[in-house]
Design goal:
Elements (H helix, E strand, L loop, with lengths): L7 H4 L36 E5 L4 H12 L6 E5 L31 H8 L11 E4 L4 E4 L2 H10 L7 H4 L9 H16 L1 H6 L4 H22 L12 H20 L7 H4 L1 H13 L1 H4 L4 H11 L21
Parallel strand pairs: 1-2
Antiparallel strand pairs: 1-3, 3-4
C-alpha cells in the first residue's frame, strides 16, 4: 500500500526548517504504546516486526538489545536502504542498496507507507525504528528508548534463563542510568545533530561546545572502568555506543564535531568503544559502516550537496 497524499514536507529533510535562532529541535516520537503482559500488545513470539536502518543510531539501539536478549527468533527485522531521499527511508523495492530488505509484510516502498497505513492522517516524522504489530496491523512504538526497555523485560518469561536474567536496566542502578541518559541524550546523542543541523554560527557553537564538555565528562567516568554504570553492561552503554561508533567516521566531518576525534582525543572512551565492538557481537554485527557513511553523506544534500562520501577514516574502527 502506498499513498497519493503529498507528505514531502515531512519526508524530505531538505524541506525541514530550523528554529528562528538557527537551532535544531528534535520532535518527540508519536507512537508510544507498550508491549506488556495483560495489555493491548501482549508479548508473543512472532507477533512483532521491527523496521530499522543500520545507519540510524536510534534504530541500532533496538538491534543491539534484541541480540543481547536473544530475541532474534521472536521479533523479525527488516532493514531499509541508507538513501533517505525526498520520500524518506526506502525499502529495497524502491532502492536496492546492498543489505537492504523488501518489506515482507506489505511490500511498502518507503517507511512512510507504514505510518500512513497505521494512521492515514499522520502528520509527524517518518522515523525508524518502527515496532509493528502484525496482529492488529499497526505501529506499537517508534521511540527507541522505550522499545529497548520492552525488549529488556517484557519477553523474559518466554526466554531461556540465560537470556532472561540479563538486565540492562537493573533496579539498583536505575537512578544513575537515568541521570546519565538525560545529559548524554541532550548533549551527545542529540548534540551531534544539533551541531550538524545548526543554521547559524551561534547555534552551532551553542551545541558543539557542550558536546565536547560532555565527552570530557564521559572520559573521566570511563577512565579505569569497563562500563558507564557499576560493573555491568547497561542501557546507558548501548545508548552512548551508537553515537560514539559513528563519531569519527561521520560526525567529525559531516556535522563539524571536530574539536577532537575519539581515537586521538579520548583514550578511555576509545578503549570502551573498541572493547564493546570487538568483544560483543551484539555491537559489531549490528554496525554497518557502509550504511552509516552512505546515509549521512548522501541524505543531507543541504549539508553535502555533491553527496561525496569520504574514504576515511581508515579503518572505520581500530583494533583492540
Amino acid at each position: 500500500m502506498s499513498t497519493n497524499r503529498d507528505v514531502s514536507h515531512l519526508t524530505d529533510i531538505s524541506k525541514s526548517k530550523p528554529d528562528e535562532d538557527g537551532s535544531f529541535k528534535r520532535k518527540p516520537s508519536a507512537f508510544r504504546d507498550f508491549v506488556q503482559k495483560g495489555g493491548k500488545f501482549e508479548p508473543e513470539k512472532g507477533r512483532y516486526h521491527l523496521y530499522v536502518s543500520y545507519a540510524c543510531p536510534w534504530a541500532t539501539r533496538t538491534l543491539i538489545v534484541r541480540k543481547i536478549k536473544g530475541l532474534e527468533d521472536f521479533i523479525d527485522v527488516s532493514v531499509v536502504s541508507p538513501h533517505m531521499g525526498e520520500h524518506g527511508w526506502p525499502f529495497a523495492s524502491a532502492d536496492a542498496f546492498p543489505g537492504a530488505d523488501v518489506d515482507p509484510l506489505f511490500n511498502s516502498q518507503h517507511v512512510k507507507d507504514l505510518y500512513l497505513r497505521a494512521k492515514p492522517d499522520y502528520e509527524g516524522r517518518f522515523t525508524v525504528p518502527v515496532l509493528w504489530d502484525k496482529k492488529t496491523s499497526t505501529i506499537v512504538n517508534n521511540e527507541s528508548s522505550e522499545i529497548i526497555r520492552m525488549f529488556n523485560t517484557e519477553f523474559n518469561h518466554l526466554l531461556p534463563a540465560d537470556k532472561a536474567v540479563i538486565d540492562l536496566y537493573p533496579e539498583a542502578h536505575r537512578k544513575e542510568i537515568d541521570e546519565i541518559n538525560d545529559w548524554v541524550y541532550d548533549t551527545v546523542n542529540n548534540g551531534v545533530y544539533k551541531s550538524g543541523f545548526a543554521a547559524t554560527q551561534q547555534a552551532y557553537e551553542a551545541a558543539v561546545k557542550p558536546l565536547f564538555e560532555s565527552l570530557d565528562r564521559l572520559e573521566k567516568i570511563l577512565t579505569g572502568k569497563e562500563y558507564l554504570v557499576g560493573d555491568q553492561l547497561t542501557e546507558a552503554d548501548v545508548r552512548l555506543f551508537v553515537t560514539i561508533v559513528r563519531f569519527d567516521p561521520v560526525y567529525v566531518g559531516h556535522f563539524k564535531c571536530n574539536i577532537r576525534t575519539i581515537r586521538d582525543g579520548y583514550p578511555a572512551i576509545h578503549s570502551w568503544l573498541r572493547k564493546l565492538y570487538w568483544n560483543n557481537s551484539a555491537f559489531s554485527s549490528t554496525c554497518n559502516f557502509e550504511h552509516i557513511k552512505t546515509h549521512y553523506y548522501w541524505s543531507h544534500p543541504h549539508i553535502n550537496p555533491h553527496r561525496i562520501i569520504p574514504v576515511g577514516p581508515l579503518p572505520d574502527i581500530l583494533p583492540l
